[in-house]
């Protein structure tokens, strides 16, 4: 029984510090503005601009704008590389479970090797294998949407004075 209890024992570290209310409000409002802009543009253009992983990108961008994962390089390249890998493996091997697993793992490895890790982008190969889009998915919604997220974040965070975003561009 003691071994079973040891499995679920935590390291004993305390919870992270609470976020200031101003950061919480800016984070939530930033997510609203960014997704609203993409959704409005998505409805007015022929090309789709929304990607499920962009919601998680907003958590990082507006909640933790100083983090390396939230920088433009990571957002744009992370989404681009992960979608490229997903589309490539879907094209080469079809919608098989093992090709999906390989795409997810390769996307992670490629982001790590290029120092462009953006955790939400890790879901792009899964999204691609489920939706089975064409290669235009790389431009719309992946790259166009990621660039628009960065632009919205840059303007919004400058106006809110929440953060000196970005810490670096590329």
From TrEMBL:
Transmembrane segments: 20-40, 47-64, 137-157
Ranges where the HPP transmembrane region domain occurs: 17-166
Superkingdom to which the source organism belongs: Bacteria
Record flagged with keyword Transmembrane helix: yes
Pfam families assigned to the protein according to its UniProt record, in alphabetical order: TM_HPP
Keyword terms: Membrane, Transmembrane, Transmembrane helix
InterPro entries registered for this protein in UniProt: HPP (IPR007065), TM_HPP (IPR058581)
Name of the molecule in the record: HPP family protein
Organism: Pseudovibrio ascidiaceicola
